Every structure is written in structure tokens, then in C-alpha cells.
Amino acid sequence: MALPPQDERTLPAVVLRDLDRQPLDQALAAVQALIDQYGHLVVVCSKAAPAGVEQRLRTIRSLLESDRIALFRPDLPPLGLAVLARQLRQLASCDLSPGVLASAGRLLTHYIHAGALLGSVARLDRVPVGLKSHAKSWVPGSQFAVLAHPEPRLVKLGPGAALPGPEFGTRMLVGKGQLQSDWVTATLAKQWNAQGLREIPAPAESAAWWGTNKLVEFAAYLPDLSVLYQLVTSVRQGVCHWCGIDVIGDRCVFCSATPPPPPDGPRQLPAGRGS
């Protein structure tokens, strides 16, 4: 998910490789070193990653007894998630507090349109697929255009096939898998009025997420740092009543605390604190 920098201000990514495979003390030391160096850590993790990765991350967070680690696993396909991670790296160069930067991930997710062109939907379980589409997927040569976010949509490729796109200016990133097709670059990019397009190899997690390696993944996103910064700073900020960090939204991304109930209501402790 460590995409090349979008501009000269984009901070480099730190890739936590094989967390679930290396010795626990080694993984602990690596994460502790990052916290010592940067103060706070925002971990963006794909839901296509093995379950052991999330378990290891939560174990590390618990053992370090740290509220300075935010674990973020939005329901985005791998390429869309990679784009989001790069947007956060762009914003990390600005004057945003750690809590606001980490909270920005949930906000910016709404502005990413992500999907894929697939050679089969037989094993696709991330997007609702009807029985008719499953049956058609066994027909040789069938291809399907699938939008996973922000609104699930699936259409069989053919004349006039289209997916609902963004109503604002975006660029498009295309991840090429093993499906040979130019529909995304030649047709969808025009339908969505993409203001720029770049092709890269599909992320390693894409085949697991989409249920096939015969794919062309795509993501449309806001590329300009000034626009991203304006979006984030235009949202009302608050202070977490539990850990005192600045946040956007009603849930702290570091300690998981939610706003306190009314004075006469039951007290609700933060969910997942230290886990």
C-alpha cells in the first residue's frame, strides 16, 4: 500500500512487514521505535490482510499500553485503501494534530470511489452478487464492472455499461491484474471525467479481496493537498473527554472513547481501551 509520493510534500510510508510472522518481541520493538520517533502512529490495514495481522497489532497495542496507536481498517478495496494511506501521508506534512490527522481517514474515505473490472464474480463476497450474476460468471469471456465504494454496484460488461461516479473532479489510479482489458482506462475514466490517470500493478491483497486475480482495479480520488486540507479543517473539531486529544467525529481513533452520556445517564467506558 506504499504508493509513490503524490507530491514533494508527501511523507514516506513506514511498512510494517510480516507482523504476524516475526517474533513478538521484534514486532514490539519496531512499533515502540516508531512511537519514540514520531510520537503517534496511525496504522492503515487492509481487511484483506490475514486475521493474524490485526490480532498481532492489537496485542502490541495492549502490551505497550499505548493510546498513541490508531488502528484504521476501513471497508475499502486494497487500491482505494492505498490511495487513502497516501492522502494521510500528504496531510501529515501539514499543521494537523495527531488526533485530527488520524480522524481524517474516516472523513476522506467518503470521497474515494473504488472498484474493479473482474473476469469472474463467483468468489466475490465483498459486494452483493445475485444468483444471475453468479451464473453469468461461468460463461467464458464474461466480465463485470464492480463498484465497491461508496455505493455497491455490479453490472455485466457490455454496450452502455456504466458505474455511478464522483460528482467532483478526481484523478484515477488503475491497478493492473491478470485481466486483459482497457475498459477502465478507455471508457470508465471518460465516464467519470478523470482529470488524470496512472497505471500501476495491482496490490498484492487485491486477488484475495476480489476473489480472483483476473482483475483491473481502480480508484478515483482527490489528489490536491490544498483540497484535502480544506476538507479536514472545515469540519468541527472536538476534544476527547478521555485522553484529551483533538478529534473529528464522535469517536476517538486512539483510545476509542465515545462522547460521555448525559449527566443522568449511565457512564460508558471507552470500548477497546488498551486493546
State the CATH topology of the domain at 113-225: Hypothetical Protein Tm841, Chain: A,domain 3
Instruction: Please provide the count of β strands.
Output: 10
Number of helices in the DSSP assignment: 8
What strand line-up does the widest sheet have?
A: 5-4-3-8-6-7
Supply the CATH class of the domain at 113-225.
Alpha Beta
The gyration radius over C-alpha positions equals 20 Å
| Major sheet summary line | 6 strands, mixed
- Strand content of the residues, in percent? 15-25%
Mean pLDDT: 87
Spell out the helices and strands N to C: HEHEHHEHEEEHEHEHEE
User: What separation lies between the terminal Cα atoms?
Assistant: 24 Å
**What percent of residues adopt helix (DSSP H or I)?**
25-40%
Estimate the global geometry from the Cα principal axes.
Answer: globular
Under the CATH scheme, the architecture of the domain at 113-225 is 2-Layer Sandwich
Poorly predicted spans: none
Structural class: alpha+beta
Topology, pairings included?
Blueprint: H1 24-38, E1 41-44, H2 51-64, E2 69-72, H3 78-91, H4 98-109, E3 113-118, H5 131-136, E4 144-149, E5 153-156, E6 171-176, H6 183-191, E7 197-201, H7 206-210, E8 215-221, H8 225-233, E9 237-239, E10 246-248
Parallel strand pairs: 1-2, 6-7
Antiparallel strand pairs: 3-4, 3-8, 4-5, 6-8, 9-10
